[in-house]
Amino acid sequence: MTGRPFWEAGWFWLLLAVVSTLPFVIAPMPLMPDHFAHAARYHVMNHGAESPFLRRYFSFEWGLI
Known about the structure:
Blueprint: H1 10-26, H2 35-47, H3 52-57
């Protein structure tokens, strides 16, 4: 052993890089349980004025936050 700490060794950084990619290998698509709510909101925002049903229940008032 050369007396260097383990975090200066190349094998440690290679192991760290491999371990950090495991979540992407195990679950290739990140979970987003509210994806359909976002898609529906986007649809209402873009097409709400065209539909009498959507216009009755939804409206957008844009403003700066």
